[in-house]
């Protein structure tokens, strides 16, 4: 603390928990200067929130802040200090310089030159932009500490167009942040060769409604993107202070759970909850078919007293737990993979991959297919058409459908895709109990399913007799008249 700011340390024991504890220990006076808005305050605890100023005015100094809100009082005190020449308002930043240069070939070149005679840095004129990288056959590191661009001698040596003086280009390049922080603006106007983005198009499209990115980007990339955007706002390139209205960070998908058992030096099993030091034990991976679950714990089937350590790790080649999506698509289909990734859990949470889980989703899609198309023929093929009939649905069937519609629509809006899929599973379970499958009901359900399992839904849509892709259809909307319960259990 002595090295921060002026080094002076302020203690307000009535309104800081650590100062309060210190004052109690050493029997120092505790004077309250902020009162809660309702006046109720625990005398045994420090009050650290905003409130009403008390015991804070001074007749000799002319500073009267009693009765003011603490936020307003802070501004009043600052103004009083400045007006009396006792000090000036200052904001302390803890920002460090941003290292924005890389000694590598691949990257945006800096649009500056250095004059030979003075070493003065001169920016390129606008008609010299964009500055492009030279073609290099060898862009490996030089081994001398100099960037690879120093190999492009003809490119490095240049002339200042304004003075004609000899100069050299910057041979370091910008980091990946230079191009990745504002790409969304070019999506709005990708073919514009005169400006970064047309003002009218930026005003129409911006800011980004929803930005979806991995949790690993939630700090670095998004921090830099906001910084970049705010600079562009300050110079009048964009019309909004913030680049994104809504940010969603989806969680990582971890590898399958790994079960680890422990043996001592004599080869005997040691339970994971043992008092013995597990660091001295030999770790051994146990196949899933050798374990069982008891309560919240996993144990050996042959010895339930031996508890195992169960943990899922981030997928990596070195760990050997990477799931190849091509293999999953080959065995279960693209829709099963897509649906399972959404069904695993909340979008923002990290989730553990489970082959058993995707098999369950695959079965659901199979049940959906059979609900519409029917069971396969003896040779394994399916008959043309569907099991659906063009009859008027009952009120109960419409109620089940519209409840499903309402839930799916709400869950999509809240990005709770896993519970939206659960709602569709409940619909299929209910529909299997019906004597008939009304076409209008099944049509609407297939439209509900289409964002989640587009390939299956498209195939079912054509089986239902539609000539045009369902991509042209309106997403179904629930009607309130079917959402009311006809009976209420008291």
TrEMBL record:
One of its GO terms (molecular function) is ATP binding. Residues 95-253, 311-342 form the Aminoacyl-tRNA synthetase class Ia domain. GO terms for biological process: leucyl-tRNA aminoacylation. This is leucine--tRNA ligase. It comes from the Eukaryota. The lineage of its organism: Eukaryota, Viridiplantae, Streptophyta, Embryophyta, Tracheophyta. GO terms for cellular component: cytosol; mitochondrion. Its EC number is 6.1.1.4. Coiled coil: none annotated. Residues 1-72 form the Leucyl-tRNA synthetase editing domain. Residues 398-486 form the Methionyl/Valyl/Leucyl/Isoleucyl-tRNA synthetase anticodon-binding domain. Belongs to the class-I aminoacyl-tRNA synthetase family. It is an enzyme of class 6 (ligase). InterPro entries: aa-tRNA-synth_Ia (IPR002300), Leu-tRNA-ligase (IPR002302), Leu_tRNA-synth_edit (IPR025709), M/V/L/I-tRNA-synth_anticd-bd (IPR013155), Rossmann-like_a/b/a_fold (IPR014729), tRNAsynth_Ia_anticodon-bd (IPR009080), Val/Leu/Ile-tRNA-synth_edit (IPR009008). It catalyses: tRNA(Leu) + L-leucine + ATP = L-leucyl-tRNA(Leu) + AMP + diphosphate. Keywords: Aminoacyl-tRNA synthetase, ATP-binding, Ligase, Nucleotide-binding, Protein biosynthesis. It comes from Aegilops tauschii subsp. strangulata.
């Amino acid at each position: 603390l002595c090295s921060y700011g002026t080094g002076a340390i302020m203690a307000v024991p009535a309104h800081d928990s650590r100062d309060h504890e210190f004052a109690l220990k050493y029997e120092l006076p505790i004077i309250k200067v902020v009162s809660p808005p309702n006046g109720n305050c625990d005398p045994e605890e420090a009050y650290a929130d905003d409130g009403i100023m008390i015991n804070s005015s001074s007749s000799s100094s002319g500073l009267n802040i009693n009765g003011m809100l603490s936020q307003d009082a802070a501004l009043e005190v600052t103004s009083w200090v400045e007006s009396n020449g006792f000090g000036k308002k200052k904001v302390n930043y803890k920002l460090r310089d941003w290292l924005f240069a890389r000694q590598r070939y691949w990257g945006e070149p800096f649009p500056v030159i250095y004059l030979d005679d003075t070493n003065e840095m001169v920016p390129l004129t606008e008609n010299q932009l964009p500055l492009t990288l030279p073609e290099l056959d060898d862009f490996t590191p030089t081994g001398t500490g100099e960037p690879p661009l120093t190999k492009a001698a003809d490119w490095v040596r240049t002339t200042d167009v304004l003075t004609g003086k000899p100069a050299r280009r910057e041979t370091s390049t910008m980091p990946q942040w230079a191009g990745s922080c504002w790409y969304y603006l070019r999506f709005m106007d990708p073919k514009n060769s005169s400006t970064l983005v047309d003002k009218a198009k930026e005003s129409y499209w911006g800011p980004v409604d929803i930005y979806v990115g991995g949790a690993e980007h939630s700090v670095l990339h998004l921090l830099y993107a906001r910084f970049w955007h705010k600079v562009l706002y300050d110079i009048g390139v964009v019309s909004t202070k913030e680049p994104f209205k809504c940010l969603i960070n989806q969680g990582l998908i971890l590898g399958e759970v790994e079960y680890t058992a422990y043996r001592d030096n004599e080869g005997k099993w040691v339970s994971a909850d043992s008092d013995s030091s597990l660091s001295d034990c030999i770790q051994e991976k146990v196949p899933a078919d050798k374990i069982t679950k008891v309560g919240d714990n996993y144990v050996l089937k042959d010895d339930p007293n031996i508890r195992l350590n169960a943990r899922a790790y981030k997928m990596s080649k070195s760990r050997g737990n990477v799931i190849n999506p091509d293999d999953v698509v080959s065995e279960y289909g693209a829709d099963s993979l897509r649906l399972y990734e959404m069904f695993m859990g909340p979008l923002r949470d990290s989730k553990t991959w489970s082959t058993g889980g995707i098999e369950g989703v695959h079965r659901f899609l199979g049940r959906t297919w059979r609900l519409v198309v029917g069971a396969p023929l003896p040779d394994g093929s399916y008959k043309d058409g569907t099991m659906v009939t063009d009859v008027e649905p009952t009120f109960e069937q419409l109620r089940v459908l519209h409840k499903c519609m309402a839930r799916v629509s709400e869950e999509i809006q809240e990005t709770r895709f896993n519970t939206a899929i659960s709602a569709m599973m409940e619909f299929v379970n209910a529909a299997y109990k019906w004597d008939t499958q009304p076409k209008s009901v099944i049509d609407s359900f297939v439209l509900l399913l289409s964002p989640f399992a587009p390939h299956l839904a498209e195939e079912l849509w054509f089986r239902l007799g539609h000539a045009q892709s369902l991509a042209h259809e309106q997403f179904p909307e629930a009607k309130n008249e079917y959402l009311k319960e006809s009976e209420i259990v008291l």
